[in-house]
Amino acid sequence: MQDFDIAVIGAGPGGSIAAKVAADKGYSTVILEKENLSQNGRYKACGGAVAWELIEKLHYPEDQIDRIIENLILHHIDGSIFTKKGKGAVLWRNKLDFFITKMALASGSALFSNEPLQFIQKVDNHYIIRTPHQHIVAKYVIAADGVTSSTLHFLDWPNFSPNDLVLTITQEMESTPQKIESSLGKEEVHLFFGIQNFIPLGYAWLFPKNKVITVGWGNNLTKIKNSRKEFQKFINLPFTKQALSSTKKIRFTPHLIPVGTRSSVYRDSVFAVGDVAGFVDPISGKGIPYAMMSAEIAIKTIHYCEKKGKEEKMGDIYQNRLNGAFLTVLRKKREFRAKIFQSDESLKNFLTLWQKHRSSKIIMQNLLS
């Protein structure tokens, strides 16, 4: 049995940032990851497009970036095209995630990979945690193990409502840099929208890496009748067909993401962060920055409450800090999501505004009225 102050379940961006911040503050910390982490990390079904601000914040090495982008091309299937300018990067999530995990290890966190959670229970003031090869005791738990969190399942937290889940399909298609640039451009990523006869509550995408095109599709779980047939509609679009000609499929992965936050994100010294808590932009699907922010807020809340003797207020303080950082805006976006996708007209009005404004400004200033 090993004793730690903080056990982090999941080695994604949220879990690894939590472990790094905790170790930097002097807490004995361990990350438990169900997948086997090799030198290349573990595959994550994700488009891999991130804002340049994140690259700068992490000091992420440019030689690990597959493609630097300058524009988002927003296609409506009726032929309308909208362009949103903004610098970003397309990369492989396994490399990004493992880069952040190594930051946590450099700060002093322990890591046990290939250790899926088998048991967790609170006994007195600590949690007993078991994996196939580890028996751990920890005072605090950071649940960072994804939308279908085993941590919260074992602790009997409620599941997400189907209305708050999107099913995504990620298909990796091997190509050549020359072919990719001729069909998709050198500095562009492409998003596809259309409520009637395409995706009623979601969108699809083509994200070019160096020698791979990541093909993605996502729709609200309650709107899906046959995911493979509906995904095939995207593959059959003329633009997609042309971009994917002479490519080779190397991976096909379904994955759930949340588009609504949990009503409670803290209970009995357990903090839900990232996808576990539902901290994903319900319009764009962006989740990595919110995973990292919520993880840092969780650890800083622990540190502050212990220092000030306010442990009994830990949940309220965590919630208030999340609200001030981003959660109020995310929940407002969730309310407006139905308004945006109520018709193709309202959707195109939003895309027109999105060309020049952040989605948070559109929602919070009610520019869509």
Annotate the secondary structure layout:
Layout: E1 2-9, H1 13-24, E2 29-32, E3 49-51, H2 52-58, E4 67-76, E5 81-90, H3 93-107, E6 110-112, E7 119-123, E8 126-130, E9 135-143, H4 150-154, E10 165-174, H5 177-184, E11 188-193, E12 202-208, E13 212-220, H6 227-235, H7 238-244, E14 248-258, E15 266-267, E16 270-272, H8 288-308, H9 314-340, H10 344-354, H11 359-364
Parallel strand pairs: 1-2, 1-9, 2-6, 4-11, 9-16
Antiparallel strand pairs: 3-5, 4-5, 7-8, 8-9, 10-13, 10-14, 11-12, 12-13, 15-16
Helix pairs in contact: 1-3, 1-8, 8-9
Supply the key terms.
FAD/NAD(P)-binding domain; D-Amino Acid Oxidase, Chain A, domain 2; 2 domains; eight-stranded mixed beta sheet; 35% helix
The CATH superfamily name of the largest domain is FAD/NAD(P)-binding domain
Q: How many alpha or pi helices?
A: 11
- Structurally, the number of domains stands at 2
Estimate what percentage of residues fall within beta strands.
25-35%
Largest sheet: 8 strands, mixed
Care to count the β-strands?
A: 16
* Helical residue percent band: 25-40%
Subunit arrangement of the protein: single chain
Distance between the termini: 58 Å
Query: From N to C, what is the helix and strand string?
Result: EHEEHEEHEEEEHEHEEEHHEEEHHHH
Q: What is the CA-atom radius of gyration, in angstroms?
A: 21 Å
The global form is: globular
* CATH topology call of the largest domain: FAD/NAD(P)-binding domain
| Average of the residue pLDDT scores | 96
Uncertain stretches: none
CATH class of the largest domain: Alpha Beta
Structural class: alpha/beta
Second CATH tier, the architecture of the largest domain: 3-Layer(bba) Sandwich
